[in-house]
Structure formats: structure tokens, C-alpha cells
Amino acid sequence: MASDREYLQFILGQLSGLEDITYRAMMGEYIIYYHGKIAGGIYDNRLLVKPVKSAISYMKKVSYEFPYEGAKAMLLVDEIDNAEYLAGLFEAMVSELPEQRPRKVFP
Fold this sequence. Notes:
alpha+beta, Yope Regulator, Chain: A, six-stranded antiparallel sheet, 6 strands, globular, TfoX_N, TfoX/Sxy family protein
């Protein structure tokens, strides 16, 4: 099931207090970037984030979910209605998120 664009817009609105939040559509879902690093994504209208230690420590309730079959488990963010909580979560995670590898350019 693909995610709704309205859900994406809601999450982006909740994160609007942060600078450098971007997204990329990918096969009906959305990858969320923070400062150019993949922080998580929207999968089946669920906000999932990378399971880094700081996110696990920050979250009140830790629940692992799979974004799609064959993928690694990610953390389900339940408190999407709390913009301050979401911003704090992303701020806590950013230093642990891996840098993006340069994209290969094919001739």
C-alpha cells in the first residue's frame, strides 16, 4: 500500500520547525532526510526512523516495524501529533545518522 501525499504533508508540517528537512518519493513511499542524511521514511502511512541509539533512548515507547518485506526493522514513531517531540527526536538522531554515499553517475 502506498502512502498518502496528505500524510507526507502532515509530517513535513510537524517537522517545519527544523531546517534542512527534505524528502524523496520512492516507489509510492517517501524517504525523509535531515541535513542530507536519511533519518527515516513514510511507509504505509507510518513514520519510521532509523534505529540509532539516540532515537531508542529518546522515544518513550520503542516499537520496531518493517517498512516493507525484506527490509531492516525501523522504529515506529507513535507521537506524530506532537511537533516538539518530533523535532527533538530528529535533533537527537542527526549526529548518529550515517553520511550519504555519493551517487554513482552512469554515462
